[in-house]
Structures are given as C-alpha cells and as structure tokens.
Specification:
This protein has a single domain (5-172), classed as Rossmann fold (3-Layer(aba) Sandwich), CATH 3.40.50. It has helices at residues 16-27, 34-42, 46-53, 55-67, 91-100, 110-116, 132-150, 162-171, and strands at 4-9, 30-33, 78-82, 102-107, 153-156. The protein has eight helices and five strands; from the N terminus they run βαβαααβαβααβα. The radius of gyration is 15 Å and the shape is globular. By secondary structure, the protein is of the alpha/beta class. Strands 2-3-1-4-5 form a five-stranded parallel sheet, with helices on both faces. Helix 6 (110-116) packs across helix 7. Residues 12, 16-17, 35, 46, 84-86, 123, 125 line the site of shikimate-3-phosphate.
C-alpha cells in the first residue's frame, strides 16, 4: 500500500489542527501537531516559550522536533502533521517538510484569519487586538512565498467547510 504522509501548512487560524485531526481519523492514521509536541516536551505553553525565550528559541525547537519526528510516530509511513504557522520560515524546515510527504497549504484571506482568531489570546506573535488585522496582513505577505515554495498543493479554504477541505485533500493523495 502507498504510504500517506500529509503535511498541513498555512497561517494560524487556517484550520490545520482541526482538519488534521479529522483527516487522520478518516484515514485511520496517526496525527501529530508540532505545537502540541513542543508544549509536551517543554512542559509549557507556546505563549510562555515565545514570551520568555523569544521567537528564535521557539523556531529552534520547531526544527529540532522536525528532525526527531520519528520519535513521536508509531508508523512513520502514514501520518498527518499539522505544523505551526511559522514552521516554513526556515529553509531547513521547508526542505525537511517537502521530503517527508505531500504538503498542503491551507490558504485563506487575512480578513478571514482575523475573524477566526478574534477570540484567540494564545498567539503571542499577533500582538494587541487593535493592530491584529494589520499584523496578520503583514505576516501573510512575508510568508506567502515560503508557503508557496514548500507546498505541493494550495487549497483555498476561504469558503469551504471541513468536509469539503478533507475531500479536496483526499482527492490529491
Ligand atoms: C505561529 C503559529 C502558531 C504557533 C506559534 C507561532 C506562527 O501555530 O506555532 O504561536 O508563527 O504563525 P498555529 O499556526 O497552529 O496557530
């Protein structure tokens, strides 16, 4: 049987973790979430890590767990990985992701991301709520090329419900 390694990338609030969980259940394969692994290993919330040690230290942890991914997997041939929104910033990470499996970019507008994250207070990089939409817009602008470079498929999830997104992904496996 063909192996199924599905990597989900994209901005915060694009639904990577939610979609990843449903997808892994539907396909009966493992689900990994890079943020969850980091929180488990570091025994603290991402917000604390970024606020106390800085973004660079957090990025270092992201690279480390990507390199050690096999330690967190029962079956390294079939799994879904939901990545943190900034995982693609490092070229090293992009190369690892591309070599792991099929990379899906869940793309949506800054306005929709803003809407999805309106209640969120666990994303330290978004800063205060007054400037949030502008912060999201500039992050999207900076990251666009990295999501583009890393992905095999871009899925515009703007007006799609979960089952449609899952269907789109499964169709491309
Ligand atoms: C980040 C996204 C977050 C988390 C951290 C940084 C980012 O993950 O890794 O707060 O730089 O976009 P989600 O994309 O799962 O929200």
């Amino acid at each position: 049987m063909n192996s199924k390694v599905i990597i989900l990338i994209g901005m915060m609030g694009s639904g990577k973790s939610t979609i990843g969980k449903i997808l892994s259940k539907d396909l009966n394969i493992d689900f990994l979430d890079s943020d969850e692994i980091i929180e488990r290993l570091e025994k603290q919330k991402i917000t604390n890590i970024i606020n106390s040690k800085g973004e660079e230290a957090f990025r270092e942890l992201e690279t480390k767990i990507l390199k050690d991914l096999n330690n967190f997997l029962i079956n390294p041939k079939d799994f879904v990985l939901a990545t943190g929104g900034g995982m693609v910033l490092r070229e090293e990470n992009r190369n690892i992701l591309k070599n792991l499996g099929k990379v899906f970019w869940l793309d949506l507008s800054a306005e929709k991301i803003f809407e999805n994250l309106s209640e969120a207070n666990d994303r330290p990089l978004l800063g205060d709520k007054e400037n949030r939409l502008n912060t999201i817009k500039s992050l999207c602008k900076i990251r666009q090329e990295f999501y583009e470079a890393c992905s095999d498929f871009k899925i515009n999830v703007e007006d799609m419900n979960h089952s449609r997104i899952i269907h789109e992904i499964i169709n491309k496996l």
